[in-house]
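seq:
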Amino acid sequence: MRGTSRASLQAVEHRFAPVLRAAGEQARTIGDELFALTDALDSSGSLRRTLADPSLDGAPKGGLVARLLDGADARTVEIAQALVRSRWSADADLADATERLAFLALLASAEADGTLAQVEQDLFSLTRALAGQREVRRYLLSDAYPAEARGDLVDRLLDGQGTAVTRAVARRAAVAPRGRRYVTTLLHVGDAIAELRSREVATVLSASPLTASQTDRLADLLGRALGRAVQVNVVVDPDVVGGLRVQAGPDVIDSTVLSRLADARRQLAG
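struct:
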């Protein structure tokens, strides 16, 4: 998401972050209702285009989304109306922004009950557990399997462990992947938690575990480069033949052998 869409999303987030925090544990309901709106936008191109059309006045669009959310929490309706009255570079960005606010609402509920740090740890543990589980990751992405079956698989993987918000986020990522890899969605949510906790999270893919001193050194280097405190989460992935792949927000530093081989192939092909 870039340009106009990014500015619109940031404005809506800035306006409603205090509202979500004030909602406390009720923010969970707001999140569920915004996910329902995301699903409606994804399932209807005409609805998405209408609500994102910059040539249409905001008042009718606000009225339409209020009718769609009839019976929903008033704060959900207010957030949705702010979204459809904003300007978007592409209609798909409206759905992405709605989903982003839905995840933020779930995280606000975790912040309210004091479990936000645990949600972060739970999601990282799940991400780490899926490293090397290629068939499971493929199943969680494939439309060939029913959404509920994918959600049930995540429930079995968690086996009742983790917080309520952890389970909600993990299941949502499986039921509605929206074209993203399962782990990618978990990492996006992890980044959102880091923002709420005012720090950066760097996810490091490595073929073998890093020592504590290596992890600390990497955190120090990344912190100086990014200008803020960095927490390094190391994921051991056998598919990484050598080197490291570091992702901190949108920034990716890929020094793996596989990456270098891919670069060599592109140069030969060119």
